[in-house]
């Protein structure tokens, strides 16, 4: 199963790969992925070492430059003196996904509650005061997008293990600056949103995409 951060990065990265490499090359790469691993391009992004190996079959050492270009167009990582990892989002699609998520009141409350106290879904919805009828749908969206991730288990009344969830980000800074004006997350998008996120501890090292794209860089 891909890490939460890989789920978050994966969709934007697939779009970048298809645009940069073109349809014919992507078709050849997908054929090789299916032959060797039984995966299509989207699936290989969730198991990024397989895509890395396939790119090296096609481009040899040139894969380094291709992956570096992907990294530069996706994110940059800043590590201040305190050693925590802030990620600046360079991809518009990804930045707008985060912006839309934190601009949604119910999703934002769910993420805040889950970060403070990782819990099972029912407890998160109860603490957030969100009805189960809509809450499960919102939580499924957050998990699918990689903004909510599993963290440990709780035991149910019948003795079964139930997943607990927490938010991927500890802090999110969002601004849109155009002609000196700053807009909040609920405003229209007049320009590329500036999004920086502080990852919860240990999340970065779980990502295959980060480990491959930033190979050789100190994290």
Q: How would you describe the overall organization of this protein?
A:
The chain has two domains: 4-79 and 206-213; 86-203, Winged helix-like DNA-binding domain superfamily/Winged helix DNA-binding domain (Arc Repressor Mutant, subunit A, Orthogonal Bundle). 53% of the residues lie in helices and 19% in strands. It contains ten helices and seven strands. The protein has a five-stranded antiparallel beta sheet. Strands 3-4 form a two-stranded antiparallel ribbon. α1 (4-21) crosses α2 (23-37), α2 (23-37) packs across α4 (48-59) and α4 packs across α5. The protein starts with a helix and ends in a 6-residue tail after the last helix. The model has no long low-confidence stretch (mean pLDDT 88).
Chart the SSEs and their pairings.
Elements: H1 4-21, H2 23-37, H3 41-46, H4 48-59, H5 62-74, E1 75-78, E2 86-89, H6 92-103, H7 105-116, H8 121-128, H9 132-144, E3 148-155, E4 161-167, E5 169-178, E6 181-183, E7 194-199, H10 208-213
Antiparallel strand pairs: 1-2, 2-7, 3-4, 5-6, 5-7
Helix pairs in contact: 1-2, 2-4, 4-5, 7-8, 8-9
Quick synopsis:
With 219 residues, the chain is an alpha+beta fold. The protein has helices at residues 4-21, 23-37, 41-46, 48-59, 62-74, 92-103, 105-116, 121-128, 132-144, 208-213, and strands at residues 75-78, 86-89, 148-155, 161-167, 169-178, 181-183, 194-199.
């Amino acid at each position: 199963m891909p890490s939460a951060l890989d789920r978050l990065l994966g969709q934007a990265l697939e779009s970048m790969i298809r645009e940069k490499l073109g349809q014919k090359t992507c078709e050849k790469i997908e054929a090789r992925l299916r032959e060797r691993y039984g995966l299509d391009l989207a699936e290989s992004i969730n198991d990024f070492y397989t895509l890395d190996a396939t790119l090296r079959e096609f481009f040899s050492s040139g894969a380094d430059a291709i992956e570096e270009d992907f990294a530069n167009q996706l994110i940059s990582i800043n590590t201040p003196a305190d050693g925590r990892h802030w990620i600046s989002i360079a991809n518009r699609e990804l930045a707008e996904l985060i912006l839309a998520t934190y601009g949604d009141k119910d999703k934002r409350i769910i993420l805040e509650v889950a970060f403070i106290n990782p819990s099972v879904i029912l407890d998160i919805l109860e603490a957030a005061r969100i009805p189960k009828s809509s809450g499960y749908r919102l939580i499924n969206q957050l998990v699918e997008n990689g903004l909510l991730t599993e963290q440990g288990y709780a035991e149910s009344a019948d003795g079964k293990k139930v997943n607990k969830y927490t938010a991927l980000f500890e802090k999110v800074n969002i601004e849109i600056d155009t002609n000196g004006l700053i807009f909040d997350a609920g405003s229209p998008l007049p320009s590329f949103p500036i999004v920086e996120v502080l990852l919860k501890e240990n999340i970065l090292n779980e990502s295959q995409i980060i480990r491959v794209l930033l190979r050789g860089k100190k994290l």
